Amino acid sequence: MMRNTLGTLGARTAFAIAIVLASLMPAKADDYLLGSQDKLRIRVVEWQTVEGAFREWTAISGEYMIDSAGRLSVPFVGEMEAGGLTTAEISKAISDTLQQSFGLSDKPQASVEIATYRPFYINGDVQAPGQYAFVPGITVLKAVSLAGGQRRLEGARIERDFINARGQHAIASQDRVRLLVRRARLEAEAKGEEGFAVAEELEGLARVSSIMADEMSILTARNRKLTLQLDVLNDLRDLLQREVTALEQKSVTQQRQIDLARRELSDVDSLAQKGLVVNTRVLGIERTIADMEGKQLDLETSMLRARQEISKTEQEIIGLRNNIEAEVAQERQKTEAELDEATLRQEMYAGLLSEAVSFASTLPGVLGGEPDTTFELTRVVDGVTQQISAGENTPVLPGDIISVRTTLKTAPGLPG
């Protein structure tokens, strides 16, 4: 399936050129820069102009881990520097390298997305310090919640429960927002619309714009894929219909010739019975008629095959639409179930927050109200390790180390 590869030196040279070109492309400030332990999901497809269809490079498609040196190894591409690049830059580098290495007229399209982010770490006064999987949008407060909340200090159970409940409530609220936006996208997709709007209750909330942008990208990509598939099938159906029309015209012409030959045979046969023409001429005309009737049969067979292909293509169009509708319906059902769960969790933690506040109000003077907690991030920026003072809403990045330190305030009238 693959064309013959170039020599190792040629492939590396082509890839090096692609990497240099990719590195010169300006990346958006918000684009995520890859690093060690990030796992990428790569899929490569190539448009075959002659065949009029897409072909997937299955030998390349799959998941790949960036090693500790920040390098990525991809079949037919080789090792590449991935640390500090974006997925868009990796995608362009792979496409350019494959085109140059194999001498392709049509550039393969590489889709690169992050399958798993590299983890972050948390230590200090938390219940379960250690390594945790990174998810986009996580903050220091949410990270502390994942680690079981702040570690219990003497006299600080109320404060710990309050912070834990508040973090879980924030996570549930964010999940609910994300699922509401997803539901709006699925409803638009089910109606065949190219855009969607969210409920008024979500307008102005944090991260709604970015979530909408992500869901809009999914909607656009899925609509584009469906349109492309339908266009290919419709073009094939039109081509087959034109073929049937041409065959029908040929069949009419052929039948006219057969009718003329039969009239000629009738005339010649009358003359032959009177001895005016030889019988060989009658045989010649009969042979010609037999040949023309055979061609007519071939034309009718070709028309039958073309009509069968048209019917098959129309069934594929219907099947494609039905599959999309079923897929969207399943996703909507799953989203509704997840939305109900997120709503219940949000209400549960809202109740726990209220309970914690009410209980704390019955214990005046306990530790001055709540613990004094400080957060610090250890982050590597451009190869330099930095110590960053953080707050509860500070975003956490993959690879960050979160240090949590809690001290207890002394209530008025109590010894320090």
Automatic annotation (TrEMBL):
The record, for InterPro entries, names:
HH_AprE-like, Poly_export, Poly_export_N
Coiled-coil regions, chain positions: 223-264, 303-345
Record Pfam families = HH_AprE (PF25994), Poly_export (PF02563)
Which keywords annotate this record?
Answer: Coiled coil, Signal
Q: Does Membrane appear among the keywords?
A: no
Residues annotated as domain AprE-like long alpha-helical hairpin:
166-345
What name appears for this protein in its UniProt entry?
Sugar ABC transporter substrate-binding protein
Species: Neoaquamicrobium microcysteis
Q: Which classification does the entry list for the species? A: Bacteria, Pseudomonadati, Pseudomonadota, Alphaproteobacteria, Hyphomicrobiales
